[in-house]
Write a structure and sequence with these properties.
Length: 389
């Protein structure tokens, strides 16, 4: 095998995810944490191009991965229908780039159905103030058609608190009244998690977080079954997906810039998380180890050995351990037998391997007194290769 220079080896190991900020660095996985601390084997976050903020005159641009439910086009009314069975076209209107409720026409619902999400929606109550309490600028945003985030003109307009603008209707009042004056655009940014049930039992009540015009008004509020009018709701299962519904409450409330981003599954729903059940962690660790070994197969010699050793941090394997140990013995024999004028070229490789062996020994993943490690440690000490702290 052609000997790798330290620079070439470093680049190779970087591609393999095994440099100091990845493999053999932070605390290893454990029974409930499938990844190591600072784990380069963990998936990189997906790139999302951010959007722009809205002004009163102009709606902002959604982020690049948003699903646009209404962006201002007249033809986008086709994405909506009347909330009736059987479905029929809605009588709500698109005027000057906004979706406007036609009082008496009934709720409107999106044809698109979705579950856990980040929802952005902007609304405006009539500039001409008419009515009070629940009769003034009333509408509602129904996530999955099941739970209402209240829309209401509460600018100098008291009402029952759990029916206030941005309340989880019938469940929880907002923490603050952050509304602008009537006729101005209000912005809701909502994080929604549906309830989760297993074998008929609630395992997660579901939650809603709401920002109104950039002000937090609901902080991870439990859904308590979804709320409702006059009657207290109790925990219940939601479907996996549902439409977004907008309420016709008899007021010509306007909407614009409606989009959502689907959210990844929670650990309880089969998704990944930093901390998981022991069963889920074991399965995930086995999956990670398999991915590392598939990557290791692309390499040979020391890079392959290091990836094999790294896989042992996630799932033990006698055959992989034996193969890595055999390569370690071969490497140790090579570097300790080299002439003086050649051993310096292997410095980086020796340091990288010894670092890995120290890590693996510390966490009892290999024996802490391996003969091969002792020989490499002696070589490092004799040539004063230990990095200065």
């Amino acid at each position: 095998m052609k000997h790798l220079t330290f620079q070439t080896l470093s680049l190779t190991l970087l591609a393999a995810g095994a440099l100091a900020d990845g493999g053999f660095y932070g605390d290893p996985p454990d029974a409930t944490h499938p990844w190591a601390i600072h784990d380069m084997n963990r998936p990189q976050p997906a790139r999302v191009e951010p959007g722009s903020f809205s002004t009163q005159d102009q709606p902002g641009q959604p982020p690049s991965d948003a699903v646009i439910l209404f962006g201002g086009g007249v033809d986008e009314i086709s994405k909506w229908q009347a909330d009736k069975q059987p479905a029929e076209p809605t009588k709500w209107e698109v005027k000057a780039g906004v979706l406007q409720c036609v009082p008496g026409s009934g709720y409107v619902r999106s044809k698109e159905e979705f579950g856990d999400c980040q929802l952005h929606i902007e609304w405006s109550a009539p500039a001409k103030v008419e009515g009070n309490s629940q009769g003034r600028g009333n509408s509602g945003v129904f996530l999955m058609g099941q739970v209402e985030v209240q829309v209401l003109d509460n600018y100098n307009n008291p009402t029952y608190p759990d029916g206030f603008a941005s309340s989880i209707y019938g469940i929880n009042p907002p923490m603050a009244n952050a509304l602008r004056a009537p006729g101005e655009w209000q912005t809701y940014d909502i994080i929604f998690r549906r309830p989760l049930f297993k074998d008929g039992q609630e395992i997660d009540p579901g939650y809603i977080t709401v920002f109104v015009n950039g002000v937090l008004t609901q902080d991870h509020t439990p859904l308590e079954g979804g709320g409702g009018h006059m009657r207290r709701s109790s925990p219940r299962a939601f479907p996996e997906k549902g439409p977004l519904k907008l309420q016709d409450h008899g007021n010509p409330v306007r909407y614009r810039n409606i989009w959502y981003r689907p959210l990844p599954k929670r650990a309880l729903d089969g998704g990944d998380s930093s901390r998981m059940t022991e069963a889920a962690t074991s399965a995930k660790r086995a999956q990670i180890a398999q991915g590392i070994l598939e990557d290791a197969a692309k390499f040979a010699g020391t890079p392959k050995m290091l990836r094999q050793f790294e896989s042992l941090c996630y799932a033990d394997s006698e055959s992989i351990r034996a193969e890595a140990m055999a390569q370690l013995e071969k490497l140790t024999q090579e570097v300790t037998s080299l002439p003086e004028d050649q051993v310096e070229k292997r410095k980086g490789e020796v340091l990288q391997v010894t670092k890995a062996l120290r890590y693996l020994g510390k966490f009892k993943l290999v024996a802490d007194n391996l003969a091969a490690r002792q020989k490499l440690e002696a070589l490092i000490k004799a040539r004063n290769w230990e990095p200065k702290k």
